[in-house]
Design brief:
Elements (H helix, E strand, L loop, with lengths): L20 H17 L8 H10 L12 H13 L3 H25 L4 H13 L1 H8 L3 H18 L8 H15 L3 H13 L11 H22 L3 H13 L5 H11 L5 H13 L4 H17 L15 H13 L2 H22 L5 H10 L24 H13 L3 H4 L4 E3 L2 H10 L8 E3 L3 H5 L8 E5 L4 H5 L1 E9 L7 H4 L2 E8 L3 H7 L5
Parallel strand pairs: 1-2, 1-3
Antiparallel strand pairs: 3-5, 4-5
Helix pairs in contact: 1-4, 1-5, 2-3, 2-20, 3-4, 4-5, 4-6, 4-7, 4-15, 5-6, 5-15, 6-7, 6-16, 7-8, 8-9, 8-10, 9-14, 13-14, 13-15, 18-20
C-alpha cells in the first residue's frame, strides 16, 4: 500500500463523467477469460454441492441462506445441466457484471478514465472478489446486487430520474432475499439519505415506495422464517459462538488488506480516509462504515464479509490515487511494475489455476499466512481443500451401501455428519435406485429423517459419542484416503450403525446441529 496518502482530487471531479468503456470492457473480458481458464478446476466446492441439493428442493428459505441464489442456480442448471462449468456460470457472470458496475459507479462519482479502470480492476481481479465469483454461492451475486444498488442510488439523485428509486427498492429486496446482510445495505442507504441533502427526497413518495417494494420482495422469506421458528437466528448465534474465531479489529483489517491484494487495497484505504475528510463524499461512504463497524465491533468476520460494501469507498480511492498517478509518468509505470507481479501471484493462489503440488509448495514457502476466521485444522491445499475428495467419498459410501443385504439396504439411508458430506453423497449417487441421504447439519437436519425406521444407518464422517451411544452396535467398515481434502474428511471413517435405542423422532431432535 502507499506509504503516504496522495492529495485529494479536485472538487470538479465530483461531476459525473462518461463511462470509459475502452477501459471497463477489457477488464470485464479479462476477468471472464481468467475464470473460463479454470472453470472446471479441481472439482465441486462443498457449498456448490449443498446448493445443488437445496436447488433440488426449492423453498422460500433455508437454514443458512435465503432462497434467491438457490433459485438462480436452479434456473441455470435446468437449462445447462449440473456440470461443474454450468454451476459456476451464474456466479462468474455476476462477477463480470460487478466489474462493469464498479466502473459505472466510479464514473457517476466523477472518476476519470484511469480511475474508472482501476475501480473495475478492483472488482474483477482482487482475490476475494475472484473467489466468491468463481465458486458458486450467494456471495458473488451479493457483490453484484450491492454494486447495482449503489449505481441506482446515485442515478436517482437526478430529479428527472426519481423513478429509479423503485428499481432500487427491487434490487435491495433481491439483496435481502439473497443474503440477510442485505439489511445492512438498506440501512446504509437510509443513513446516506438521512444525513445528506438528499433527505429532501423523503418528502416525495419514491423512497417510501422503494422501501415497500424491498420488503415486499423479502416478505416470503420472512413468512418462511416465522413458520420455521426463526431457525436462521439460531444458525447465526451458534456460528458466532462455536464456529467463528474472535479476531481483534487490526487483524480483521489486516486480513482485508491481504485478500483484496496488498496493492489494490490502497483503493479502499484511501477511499475510506478521504471519504471521512470530504463532506460531499461522506454520506455515500456511510454504508461501508456501517458494515465495517459492525464487523469490527463483533470481532468476527470471514474474509468475504466486507466485500460487497467496498463499492461505497473504492471509487473515491480510485479518484484520489488516479490523480496522484497521472501527475507523474514515473509513478504510473512504477505502479504497474508492482501491481502486475503481485496481481498474478494473488490470482494464482485465489483460483484453481495451478496443479495441487504447486499450490502446496507456494503456500508452504509464502510468508503470507492469513489468520483463519473459523476453528479447525487447515489442509495443505488451504481454501482449495473443499474441492477435493467428494466423488471418491460418494463412491466409497455407495460400495458400503451396496454391500448390505438387499432387504436391509433398501431401508438404510446414508447419514452425513455435515452438509458437505450429505450433499456429495446425494449428488454423485442421485441416480442410484433406492439410495437415500439424510444428515444432522443445517438444512439436512430440517429436511428430517424421511421414512427411516432406525434399524440401520451408514454414517460418513466421525460419529459423535452421543450418536454412537444411541445405537446397539457400531462397525467401521471403510476409511477414506484423500490427503488434499479438509482434515475432517481426508481420512473420514464409514461406519455402519445398527439398532437405534430410542424413537427416531427423539434421536433426530437430539442430534440437531445448526451452525
Amino acid at each position: 500500500m502507499a506509504t503516504a496518502a496522495p492529495a485529494p482530487a479536485p472538487t470538479a471531479a465530483n461531476i459525473p463523467q462518461p463511462p470509459y468503456w475502452a477501459g471497463i470492457w477489457p477488464v470485464a473480458a479479462t476477468t471472464l477469460l481468467i475464470h473460463l481458464a479454470c472453470i472446471g478446476g479441481y472439482g465441486y466446492f462443498r457449498d456448490e454441492l449443498y446448493y445443488l441439493a437445496c436447488a433440488n428442493r426449492l423453498d422460500w428459505g433455508y437454514v443458512d441462506h435465503p432462497p434467491l441464489s438457490v433459485a438462480v442456480l436452479k434456473l441455470f442448471t435446468s437449462v445447462l445441466g449440473t456440470h461443474l462449468w454450468a454451476v459456476r456460470t451464474p456466479g462468474i457472470l455476476a462477477g463480470c457484471g460487478s466489474v462493469i458496475l464498479y466502473g459505472l459507479v466510479a464514473a457517476r462519482l466523477g472518476a476519470g478514465r484511469l480511475a474508472q479502470t482501476m475501480a473495475a480492476i478492483f472488482a474483477g481481479l482482487t482475490p476475494v472478489y475472484a473467489v466468491v465469483s468463481h465458486l458458486y454461492s450467494m456471495n458473488g451475486i451479493d457483490i453484484a446486487l450491492w454494486a447495482g444498488a449503489a449505481l441506482l442510488y446515485l442515478c436517482s439523485a437526478d430529479e428527472s430520474r426519481r423513478k429509479l428509486w423503485l428499481w432500487l427498492g427491487l434490487v435491495c429486496g433481491l439483496a435481502m432475499l439473497n443474503k440477510l446482510s442485505g439489511f445492512w445495505l438498506v440501512a446504509g442507504l437510509g443513513c446516506a439519505t438521512l444525513f445528506s441533502p438528499r433527505r429532501a427526497e423523503l418528502k416525495t413518495v419514491y423512497p417510501w415506495a422503494a422501501a415497500g417494494i424491498a420488503f415486499a420482495v423479502f416478505f416470503p422469506h420472512f413468512v418462511w422464517q416465522n413458520e420455521h421458528n426463526w431457525v436462521t437466528q439460531e444458525f447465526v448465534r451458534n456460528a458466532a459462538q462455536f464456529k467463528m474465531v474472535p479476531q481483534p479489529p487490526w487483524i480483521i483489517l489486516g486480513v482485508q488488506a491481504v485478500v483484496t491484494n496488498p496493492v489494490m487495497a490502497t483503493l479502499w484505504v484511501l477511499g475510506a480516509y478521504w471519504a471521512l475528510r470530504k463532506p460531499e463524499w461522506r454520506p455515500f461512504a456511510l454504508t461501508y462504515f456501517l458494515v465495517i463497524g459492525i464487523l469490527l465491533l463483533s470481532m468476527r468476520s470471514r474474509e468475504n464479509y466486507p466485500a460487497p460494501s467496498y463499492v461505497f469507498v473504492v471509487p473515491f480511492g480510485a479518484i484520489v490515487f488516479g490523480e496522484w498517478l497521472k501527475a507523474s509518468r514515473a509513478r504510473f509505470y512504477a505502479m504497474l511494475a508492482v501491481f502486475v507481479p503481485v496481481g498474478v501471484f494473488c490470482i494464482s493462489l485465489a483460483l484453481p489455476l495451478l496443479p495441487p503440488p504447486r499450490v502446496e509448495e507456494i503456500a508452504e514457502k509464502s510468508q503470507v499466512d492469513v489468520p483463519s476466521a473459523e476453528k479447525g485444522a487447515k489442509s495443505p491445499m488451504q481454501g482449495f481443500a473443499d474441492m477435493f475428495g467428494w466423488p471418491e467419498m460418494a463412491s466409497a459410501v455407495r460400495a458400503v451401501w451396496l454391500g448390505l443385504p438387499e432387504d436391509e439396504r433398501l431401508r438404510t439411508p446414508v447419514f452425513g455428519m455435515n452438509y458437505g458430506e450429505s450433499a456429495a453423497c446425494w449428488y454423485f449417487n442421485r441416480n442410484e435406485p433406492g439410495f437415500k441421504v439424510i444428515g444432522r447439519h443445517n438444512q439436512y437436519w430440517l429436511w428430517g429423517p424421511g421414512d427411516w425406521d432406525g434399524r440401520t444407518l451408514v454414517v460418513i464422517g466421525e460419529p459423535t459419542p452421543a450418536i454412537l451411544d444411541s445405537f446397539e452396535s457400531a462397525h467401521m467398515v471403510a476409511q477414506l484416503n484423500s490427503p488434499n481434502s479438509v482434515p475432517e474428511e481426508a481420512h473420514a471413517p464409514i461406519t455402519i450403525l445398527r439398532g437405534l435405542k430410542k424413537p427416531v423422532v427423539q434421536f433426530w431432535r437430539e442430534i440437531r446441529h445448526i451452525q
